[in-house]
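HUMAN: Please help interpret these tokens:
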Amino acid sequence: MSARSLLTLALAALALVFVAWFGMRGEWVAVFVFALPVVACLAGVVARRRAAGLWSGMLALLWFSHGVMVAWTRPGERGWALAEVALALVVIFSASLPGLRARFGARKAQRS
């Protein structure tokens, strides 16, 4: 599976987590605040925009922090928060993978 495919799946799953998490409680403003940036990043990744991976990775740091904070402070929402943390880590990894491959793959090829 390519890094872009993994990033696409992780962003789609994260958007669904936010819609389910906040939507089931009727907090539609929270759905828009949390899910719209994810959907915007997803649209950029699908459209192959160069900066979409960068923005996805940077926003994933915020999602990770939010998930950790909620997991520590709200035991009733811990499952949703840990899902957010896990998906944010997948987004960070998959958004960074092409750059890591370019950086360290070239060094490995030079040694051979």
Residues 3-105 form one domain. Residues 8 and 25 are 26 Å apart (CA to CA).
